[in-house]
Amino acid sequence: MLPTATIIDIHCHTAGIGAGSSGCFVSSAMRRNVRFNFFLKTFGVSERELLQHGDGLVLERLSKRLGESRQVSAAVVLAMDGVVDAQGQLDQAATEIHIPNEFLGRECKKYPNLLFGASINPNRSDALERLDRAAEEGAVLLKWLPSVQHIDPADARLTPFYRRLRELRLPLLTHTGNEESFTRVDNSLADPLRLRRALDEGVTVIAAHCASNGKNDGQANLERLLSLFGQYPNLHADISALTQANRLGHLTGVLRNAGIHDRLLYGSDMPIINSAITSPWWHAYRIPLPEVRRIAAIKNPWDRDVELKRALGVTEKILGNSARMFVGAGLVPARLAPLQ
Ligand SMILES: [Zn+2]
Questions:
Q1: Structural domains in the chain plus CATH codes
Q2: pLDDT on residue 109
Q3: What is the pLDDT of residues 195-207, one digit of tens each?
Q4: How crowded is residue 291: how many other Cβ atoms within 10 Å of its Cβ?
Q5: Distance of CA 329 to CAs 8, 9, 325, 326, Å?
Q6: What's the gap in Å between 228 CA and the centre of ligand 1?
């Protein structure tokens, strides 16, 4: 009998070009970029197919492929809000990618293994109403990419937003460390120390990618993140992207800190796990060759990712943390991840 999948992936992306009136938006510069077509390909779709069937096709393909995983039972798919102007309105000209909550919430409802990860720029004039609406629509967390969405998590004006997040018991998954996929980026906004305001307000904060790259004030972002765990039991971090070729050694570096193992959550950063940049072969200097070969031969991208992370030292306990946290908080139904 196949082992029952029990792992919850808390960091999975989707894509959209606005097809089928999805409301998704990609800037023309981004869309002309060859990387964008490559990005669509890693989802198993082409631009032509999207134009024909609508952006919902990406979710359909994600759900199907995830359903074939022996390891991962469900994934939180992430919306992506845009940049907001001084009047608190969407600034389309400054936005490179927008995946609206309305579209994603609706699509995720169709697939029991896809969970809705909302994204709201807190600088929107109606941010609190949007937050309530996202919670009503079944959001299991809120996602930010501060360096791209121009959000300063340390801004005192965000206090009411943090209080509402806490009341709704929605975790905040927010990018930490440098960001390399977008053109207009302010990496100082992804400084882990800027998360203290949310943490002080009692928000459950998940630092995406463990702040494993980049520096602020001359100090490695990872070091800055590590300095917070002792003071804040509400701080967590995800292990997505840490096996990328441009982050070699980052996962083992994070795992060396045994004291934070109970705070680490599994994230895949799909579709990145389906591209050559996360190939097990990059790790051949650390993993025995037959093992690399075995992992590289695994077809399902989630199963390959989980096995690679196991080979690099991620424990069963760590792989179970996301299910314990999200099922435990009542955000995700227990049938998706039977707790062990
Ligand atoms: Zn990501």
A1: 7-329 (3.20.20.140)
A2: 97
A3: 999 999 999 999 9
A4: 17
A5: 14, 16, 6, 5
A6: 22
